[in-house]
Every structure is written in structure tokens, then in C-alpha cells.
Amino acid sequence: MKRNQSGITLIGFILLLAVVGVFAYMGMKLVPMYTEFYSVKRSLADLAKEPGASQMDSGKVRTLLFRRFEMSYVESVKPTNVKIVRNDEGIQVAVAYEVRRPLIANLDVVGRFNTVQQMRSNGSD
User: How far apart are CA 83 and CA 116, in angstroms?
Assistant: First the structure.
């Protein structure tokens, strides 16, 4: 009675670990970029809920926004990445920035993020 063995070989297992390791390494580079972006979005949404946010001047909005960024450990957004425009509906705050992280050797991961928050005069979102 001949029995055939089935399963993965040692070389196959090492190759599988290498592929899983590369994807895990890429995830460790990408996940912090996206969590920082969601912190930026949350900071903008929280600022829009602030009482009287649509009546503030742009300097006050910028100061409050960067305080929230400091509390949320947002380090990639610089003052030049924030545009504050007053319009008919209130104040529109746009944040557009780029994050570049080294991946392997001379390869980089680049993330471009853009979000806009409208702070309406009537207090709605």
C-alpha cells in the first residue's frame, strides 16, 4: 500500500513567507499614512462642529486646526497645505498634502491626500 504525501515543501513555505512578509512590510508603511489622513478628516469635522466656527477669521481657524493636528499627532500637514476660503455658505477649509515614505532601497511609497470641510453658517455639516 503506497501512500502519497501531500502538503507544502520547505522551499514553497519559504517563498510563501517571503510574499507574506513583503505585503506585511508594505502594510506597515501604508497604514500610518491612512490613519494620519483620517485624523486630519476627524480634526476638520470636529472643528466644523465648534460653536461659531463659520464666523471665525481665517487665522483663528488655522490656529484651532493646527492645535487639533498636534493633539492627533498629525505631522505631515504643513501650514502651506491648508487653504481657508470664505464663501456664501461660511468657511471652506481644504487640506491637500503628500506623504512620501521609503519602501525598499530606492523605491518610495507616495500618498496624495485631499479633503475639504465646509463650515456652514447655520451650523449644519
Answer: 9
Predicted TM-score of the model (pTM): 0.80
pLDDT for 43-100, tens place per residue? Answer: 999 999 988 888 888 899 999 999 999 999 999 999 999 999 998 888 999 999 999 9
Helix crossing, 58-71 with 10-49: angle to 10°?
A: 140
Find how far residue 22's CA is from the centre of its chain. Answer: 22
DSSP code, position 86: E
Return d(Cα 94, Cα 31) in angstroms, integer: 22
95, 77 contact by CB (below 8 A): yes
Which residues on adjacent β-strands are paired with residue 86?
91
User: Which residue intervals of 1-125 are DSSP H helices?
Assistant: 10-49, 58-71
For 35-62, b where at least 16 C-beta lie within 10 A, e where not — what string?
ebbebbeebbebbbeeeebbebeeeebe
Tell me the C-alpha distance between 114 and 94, whole Å.
7
